[in-house]
Design a protein that fits this description.
The complex is a heterodimer of chains A (about 290) and B (about 290). Chain A has about 290 residues and is an all-alpha fold. Chain A contains twelve helices and two strands, in the order αααααββααααααα. Chain A has one domain. Chain A is about 75% helix and about 0% strand. Chain B has one domain: ABC transporter involved in vitamin B12 uptake, BtuC (Orthogonal Bundle), CATH 1.10.3470. Helix content of chain B is about 75%, strand content about 0%. A two-stranded antiparallel ribbon of chain B has the order 1-2. In chain B, strand 1 and strand 2 form a beta hairpin. In chain B, helix 2 runs antiparallel to helix 3 and helix 2 runs parallel beside helix 4. The N and C termini of chain B lie far apart (about 40 Å). In chain B, about 55% of the residues are buried. At the A-B interface, helix 4, helix 10 and helix 12 of A face helix 3, helix 4, helix 9 and helix 11 of B.
Chain lengths: ~290, ~290
């Protein structure tokens, strides 16, 4: 039972990540392969604030989102001037630079040794260390994320985003500041990824750079694509499927030295097959043309 | 100190240039980022290990067979994944993402077969290096540098002088026009995958002489290869060579005053600067459509 609750918490955290990336990739058509950077910054900001300054994780959660948002601005400002596969490459670069900063800035982040003993959230003095109580927290924040992102994409704002995706020049012609919109979307996406990072850090209680590699970014992107481009339902399904799937491999009784590469091989294969057969994903409404 | 860094930079640069060269040969005909090139490089290196260490073949033979093997892997990737996507007129982004998928797949296949531990192609103790001014260079490093420069000139001559090389240049300039004059674009693309991948395999075996083999080695290699190509001017053969050496030396000078853990970050910082201020690279013709 405890195990199922744990899986659900992880599903919730990845749902937030996938939703936030879908806003960038699916709705606006900006391919980013560096989303783990924002997840990473959120986790580290929140963990460091509560470990070093004894700050409440609630404040850490907000600051993690804001910090990731600022990072989104810093990364987005130069790289959003690029298009298509060059933008994708620049985001890979940004992800690697953030990873190396976290790994090498040992005096602050303890580098590869990681940060242990991150405290959990508390509500009116009641510490959320039981998995079920944390699950309630994660589900509420996931619901808020779904609500906010849904509001963003269904209205006129969302229509501008889709118009940028379909034909950026045309929406510029209609007087839309497309660069500004793209930057806003990037920052909002980064903000939610930072929130997810904070939730992850306070739940797992230990973070190290190895959780935030390029492979992590590819996995989040795979969740977006599998579930469906520009689909909220799809993002939730994509995240849940790809969180549960590796756990099934564990039940097959593979030793971990085999299970880890097999899992990644299946991810790689899945990405190739999706690109070949169904680039818009399961519930997708948009495909790269 | 400075001279030593230059020597290290030259050796790293030689490898980067080889990877970039193979990448560029492929990029010229297909026009997308073949990220899985890094996995081909790692596959070549590991195959070389199997031949030279596990089967105890002569090194030169193992080296050549590894190149052939890498070429086959490259052709296979093109046939199974890229060709069907090309038929559907898939966008560069789809091809790039599929390429990422292949990369992840092959890298983990290598890990499954050989395990995650570090292997080495070195036999016997490390020989003492020669002193040139104040720098030390080992015989292995001289071998790496000589072979890589030799391979670069071979490839350059192949593309400049042979009929197939000419066909590759024609497809790269205008695939439709090339097919009108009777050049089969698919065959030419296959040849460019074979050639580019063989050179990646060679680079993999060469680097394995100097450093160790690990399944994730392809990642840094392809990043450096792509970055070197863009610095030099994407698709340009002399540009890829120049970019490789430039990147190798810049990285090694960079770690002189920062720490060596920042190597990849330095490379990417250089890339982002280039993408923003000179996207066509040092030796490149400005093509607005591709970048901005």
């Amino acid at each position: 039972m405890e195990y199922i609750l744990h899986i659900l918490v992880i599903c919730g955290i990845y749902s937030i990540l996938t939703l936030s990336l879908n806003l960038i990739v699916g709705y606006t058509g900006l391919v980013s392969i560096g989303h783990a950077a924002f997840f990473c910054i959120g986790a580290y900001i929140s963990a460091l604030l509560s470990l070093n300054l004894g700050m409440s994780p609630w404040i850490g959660l907000i600051l993690a989102g804001c910090g990731a948002g600022v990072l989104g601005l810093v990364i987005g400002t130069p790289s959003l001037r690029l298009k298509g596969d060059y933008l994708a490459l620049a985001t890979v670069g940004a992800g690697i630079i953030v990873y190396q900063i976290v790994k090498n800035w040992v005096s602050v982040t303890r580098g590869p040794m990681g940060l242990p003993g991150i405290p959990s959230f508390s509500v009116f003095g009641y510490i959320l260390d039981a998995t079920w109580s944390y699950l309630i927290l994660v589900i509420s924040i996931t619901a808020i994320s779904v609500f906010v992102i849904r509001r963003l994409v269904i209205g006129s704002y969302g229509r501008v985003l889709k118009s940028i995706r379909e034909d950026e020049t045309a929406s510029q012609m209609l007087g839309k500041n497309t660069v500004g919109y793209k930057l806003q979307v990037f920052v909002v996406g980064a903000f939610f990824a930072g929130i997810a990072g904070s939730l992850y850090a306070h739940y797992i209680t230990f973070i190290d750079p190895s959780s935030f590699t390029l492979l992590e970014s590819v996995t989040i992107l795979l969740m977006v694509i599998l579930g469906g481009m520009a689909s909220i339902r799809g993002s939730l399904v994509g995240a849940v499927v790809l969180v549960i799937f590796p756990e099934l491999l564990r039940f097959l009784g593979m030793p971990s030295s085999v299970a880890a590469p097999v899992r990644q091989m299946i991810y790689g294969l899945l990405l190739v097959i999706l690109m070949m057969k169904r680039p818009q994903g399961l519930f997708g409404k948009f495909r790269f043309t | 100190m400075l001279q030593q860094l230059l020597v290290n930079g030259l050796i790293a640069g030689g490898i980067y240039a080889l990877v970039a060269l193979g990448f560029s040969v492929i990029y010229r005909t297909v026009k997308f980022f073949h990220f899985a090139h890094g996995a081909v490089y790692a596959a070549g290196a590991y195959f070389g290990y199997t031949l030279a260490i596990q089967l105890k073949l002569h090194f030169v033979l193992a080296f050549l067979l590894a190149m052939v093997f890498a070429a086959l892997v490259g052709i296979l990737i093109d046939r199974i994944v890229y060709r069907p996507l090309r038929k559907k007129n898939a966008s560069n982004l789809i091809l790039l993402l599929a390429s990422f998928g292949i990369f992840v797949f092959v890298q983990n296949l290598i890990q499954l077969i050989y395990g995650a531990q570090i292997l080495s192609l070195r036999t016997g103790p490390v020989k003492e290096g020669y002193h040139i001014f104040s720098a030390v260079i080992t015989p292995t490093q001289i071998l790496i540098l000589t072979v890589s420069v030799l391979l670069m000139f071979l490839l350059w001559a192949f593309i400049k002088k042979t009929k197939l090389g000419k066909a590759m240049r024609a497809v790269s300039d205008d695939a439709v026009a090339a097919s009108v004059v009777g050049i089969n674009p698919e065959k030419t693309i296959m040849a460019s995958f074979a050639l580019g991948s063989a050179w990646a395999g060679a680079a993999g075996v060469l680097i394995a002489l100097e450093t160790n083999l690990e399944p994730t080695m392809g990642f840094a290699a392809i990043l450096k290869g792509i970055i070197a190509s863009i610095i030099g001017g994407i698709g340009s053969i002399p540009g890829a060579m120049f970019g490789g050496f430039f990147l190798g030396i810049a990285e090694n000078l960079g770690i002189a005053w920062i720490s060596s853990g920042w190597k990849d970050a330095i490379a990417f910082a250089i890339l982002i600067v280039f993408l923003l201020i000179r996207p066509q690279g040092i030796i490149g013709v400005k093509n607005k459509e591709e970048t901005v």
